[in-house]
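Good morning C.,

I know you're traveling, so I'll keep this short. The sequence:
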Amino acid sequence: MAPTSSSANGRDQENDAHVALIATFYAAFAEGDAETMVACYHPDVVFADPGFGQLRGDDAKNMWRMLCRSAKDLVVATTDIAAADGRGQAHWEADYTFSTGRKVHNVIDAEFDFAEGLIIRHTDTFDFARWSGQAFGLPGQLIGRVPVIPQAAFQQVARRQLASYSASRQAKSV
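The C-alpha cells, ready to paste straight into the viewer:
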C-alpha cells in the first residue's frame, strides 16, 4: 500500500526536523556552545568514537562540554547533512591544536538515530591512525598503526580526563 500524502508529508517534516537538529548541533560546536549541543541529545544518548569509545548519557554530554572548553582555536565545518527514516548522517571536519601543541585536521563521518525529536545515538568514525599521527607526531603514527591495544589505551586516558572534568563540574554545582 502506497503511503498517503499526509504520511509522506509527516515523514518529510520529521526528516527536516532531524536535519535541522544535526545542523544546530554542529553550528553550536563551531561556536563552542556545548550547552546547545547537549540540548540536542536525548537523556539516554549513546555516543561512540575511536577516541573515547562508547559514552552514555551525561558522560557523552560532558565530553562535548570538556572539548568545547579546551578547544581554543577549533574550526568546525559540516557538510552532507541528511536524515531519513529516523536516522541521520553528516560529514564534518575539525581543525584545532591538540594538547601536545600539534595541529590536527580530523575528517569525521557521523551517524545518528533519533528518539522523541532528539539524538539518541551518535557515532563518529575517523581514521584513528591518521589522527594519532597528527596529534602525537611519529610516536602517534607508530602507535596508531597497531590495532586495538593502543587505541584502547588512548581511550582509557581520554576517559580519565573526562572523569576528572565531570567530577570538577559536579563539585562546582554543589
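Safe travels,
E.
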